Amino acid sequence: MTNPNWEVVIGLETHAQLSTQSKIFSGAPTAFGAEPNSQASLVDLALPGVLPVLNRGAVERAIRFGLSVGATVNRRSIFARKNYFYPDLPKGYQISQYEIPVVSGGGITIEVGGVEKYVRLTRAHLEEDAGKSLHEDFHGMSGIDLNRAGTPLLEIVSEPDMRSSAEAVAYAKKLHELVQWIGICDGNMQEGSFRCDANVSVRRRGTETFGTRCEIKNLNSFRFLEQAIEYEVERQIELIEGGGRVVQETRLFDPDRVETRTMRSKEDAQDYRYFPDPDLLPLVIDDAWIARVGSEMPALPEVQRSRLVEVHGLSVQDAQALTASRATVDYFEAMLAALPGEAKLCANWLMGELSARLNREQIDLARAPIDAPQLAALLRRITDGTLSGKMAKDVFDAMWNGDGTADAVIAARGLAQISDAGAIAAIVDEVIAANPKSVEEFRAGKDKAFNALVGQVMKASKGKANPQQVTDLLRARLG
Amino acid sequence: MSVDGSTDLARASVAALAKVLAAKEVSAVELATLFLDRIDAHRDLNVFLDVRPDVTLAQAREADRRRAAGETGPLLGVPLAHKDIFVTRDWASTAASRMLKGYMSPFDATVVEQLAAAGMVCLGKVNCDEFAMGSSNENSAYGPVLNPWDKGAVPGGSSGGSSAAVAARIAPVATATDTGGSIREPAAFTGITGTKPTYGRPSRWGMIAFASSLDTAGLMTVSAEDAAIVLSAMMGFDPRDSTSVDRPPEDCTRDLERPVKGLRIGVPKEFFGPGLSPDVEQSVRAALDVYRGLGAELVEISLPNAALGIPVYYVVAPAECSSNLSRFDGVRYGHRASKYRDLEDMISRSRAEGLGPEPKRRILIGTYVLSHGYYDAYYLKAQQVRRLIADEFRRAFETCDIIAGPVTSTVAFGFGEKAADPVSMYLADLYTVPGSLAGIPSMSIPCGFGDKGRPVGLQLMADYFQEARMLGAAHQYQLATDWHRRVPAGF
Q1: Which residue of B has its CA nearest to A43?
Q2: Do B328 and B353 meet the contact criterion of CB atoms below 8 Å apart?
């Protein structure tokens, strides 16, 4: 959608719901989908006399995020009140951070069409979510559900550094991967745990100043993000080229009609009357706290990838696939810990057999019936020659179906590969004696005849003879 | 029990009540009954907003049971009244506003919990200015409280119900709250002892918020000794209040017997300017002479920025109140308009009907000073000056141990005298606001009578966390004088 005359400028504000058990300023649980108002405490209801107390877990997650994007974790930040009236905002103000956020700066590297780009972050701040107004379910009335009120959010604000919807989507996906990777957000977009507001403007190429921007609210899928930006860019270009003027406003995306619509214009913009919340002391984060959070953090995907390539000798493609999620790389690391030096074999089985099976049966890796040490134990029976690759796949099936560990399945089915040279030699001699015609053909130079002899040995051993040893022995005998 | 005996009991201090309760000369039930009867007899004062004798008597029976089980304690069985700013499960919590008429809280304020745990028996909830906004108790949605000394005079505010209750001895002690002078000014106007501890020491959990950075729970008592005894039970860290100071509970009675000989009393010259009426000045200067006679050293000090206290306070307090009172929107609890067009109209009408003129005035001021483009000029500047005032006190306490001066510029004024002129009403807080802005402990003790025989208060202020020292100085004065024992005629 590049237009030769116009340049697109995009900045994103992303709300990531932090994965704490309880709310940011009260002890009520944050679990999704409970009965309306069953998870609203006295504080969430804003009853007279209640006071907020900050959840340290939310702060730790913000610190984790700051460290993961190379940002400054501010040693002192301030909670402010954003004042406005709405029935699902119980206190009549939202506690957020305004002048001094917990995280400043930092950035994320994205890749679009093979080109890398660094997107700067302005800030990330902690705030509480509002409740929900339910207008449809009640005839002539509105219902209020305050379960979500007080849910901790990290609002991550980017600089207007993106120049296409593809870059915006790449940024959002990267951020989405990151917040899950560092364990601060479950990333569930359907439940609203990760949602974006897009600030979009256009300017004629070569212009220095930004055009007037519109903000599109609450985009909760990457596809909607892309569609909304593309629609909006086209709308703005058409408007200006038609002699019109873009008005700064907040717009909503309608996914059914694939268009954006005015929600409120700048003239209706509220004066939120921000001021420091006198119920909360400044948030002070000392070096020791940051160091502790940092020490408990998983290595970032980039770091993990280069380690897989440089230390374990895997290909870039394998490293990429293994770091698709933290669960995958954790599984891999656990396998490797049980089977050192077999990175490639572990990667092949994890990305091959196991992934295929999980995909087919729509199961999360976390809930796989075979855990990493069990799978590693199976692979050990390949490296020590007990099983052939093909036999291992049968054992894998049995393990998947709950027949026990690899060794238990091997024992129960008498599957152990025959690697005993004497036993194999005996079979080879029998086969040579019983197939003089094939022997003669081989000696006459027919390679096919050799394969037939191998097949006979395997058949006689009921498939258990070590194929490599069979080949070697046959060549020796016939050589 | 004889009539005289019951009058003596009604006039007894908490310390004296503790003795007769411990000696089992009187039961908690008998005491509660006595005060409930007095409350009933003096209903014309309009002190109590909610009285539920059955609940009170149940609490008294429980106190008696605890004592029978061997429990002791200086507060076990002693009755008290709570200002209607503290939420309570068993009595309506209205903040003297129509907005919260009949509102029953599902929980008790920390201070209410602490004093109940100490065995105190609650007599009910007392009147105040609506949402603690006012200096005369004329702003209550449930009518003004009368001053027991002179029913034509205001009892002060906002804790006018608390001060009148103790002055009339219809409660031996009452909780109160102070944001800009709401404990000290009514205490001065009614001739009793009013104590505001350091901001952040008593918990604010369960106090209906007016201005969060200033609101401080405290007490109205007959004497400084009583204040020390009861205050000791309501200090201590509360994890539910983020501004609660994490210090161990403290025995505030520890300095009561400490002589004031050598005590350096700072006397701010700015507190004796032309605005101070002669009758008040005379009583206050006489009180300072008493201290000198006891061996204290009077030191003249200067608090040049204290005069900025009023403008600073009337930016900071309304700003915070405009936000704190936003929760009263008629959606979840409280008054909801009966007729409205849509959601926005419902919120507007509910607030217009539910809130009285003074909260509305302050919400308007607060909304204005926080508005875009005005924030820096008003709120930010006010916070900077507030810091200067606090620094000034810090420096002053390098040269003195206690600061003493007037509480108010005049004795209690009459009903309606200032109601039409909000600014003159705001100026009533001139001497009390600086201590509130700094967050230091301060108190008012009775020190004589001025015009029309109305009481005069002496203000004492101390450095952060020095309430025990301050209460000790007050107690020593009360050992040497009997102003605090004076009871208005007919009570």
Answers
A1: B240
A2: no
First-residue to last-residue Cα distance in chain A:
67
Token pair 């089985």 is found at: A349
In a domain, A57, yes or no: yes
The predicted model gives B164-184 an average pLDDT of: 98
Given a cut of 60, whether residue B2 has pLDDT beyond it is no
Q: Which amino acid is at A80?
A: A
* Beta-carbon contacts below 8 Å between A and B: 101
Q: What angle do CA A327, A193, A42 make, to 5 degrees?
A: 120
Mutate to test the interface with B, among A275, A277, A283, A284 (most CBs of B within 10 A): A275
Digit-coded pLDDT (tens) for B450-463: 999 999 999 999 99
B3-257: which CATH topology? Amidase signature (AS) enzymes (3.90.1300)
Are residues A442 and A303 both part of a single domain? no
Residues A251 and A348 in one domain: no
Structural domain ending residue among the three candidates A413, A436, A451? A413
A85:B211 CB<8 A:
no
Pair B444, B182: CB distance under 8 Å: no
Q: What is the CB-side half-sphere exposure of residue B254 using CA atoms within 13 A?
A: 9
Domain stop point among A413, A442, A460: A413
Per residue in B267-302, pLDDT tens? Answer: 999 999 888 999 999 999 999 999 999 999 999 999
If asked whether residues A279 and A371 sit together in one domain, one would say: no
Active-site amino acid positions of B: 83, 158, 182
CB-nearest to A278 from B320, B322, B331 is B320
Q: Which amino acid is at A173?
A: K
Using an 8 Å CB-CB cutoff, list chain B residues near A131: none
| Domain locations in chain B as residue ranges | 3-257
How far is the alpha carbon of B327 from chain A, nearest alpha carbon, in Å?
4
Residue B368 in contact with partner chain A when CB distance is under 8 A: no
Domain count, chain A: 3
- Identify the three-state secondary structure at position B50: strand
Single-letter amino acid, residue A1: M
pLDDT at A478: 83
Q: Which residues does chain A have with pLDDT short of 70?
A: 1, 267
| Shared-domain flag, residues A21 and A116 | yes
Are residue A69 and residue A169 in the same domain, yes or no?
Answer: yes
Residue A178 lies in a domain: yes
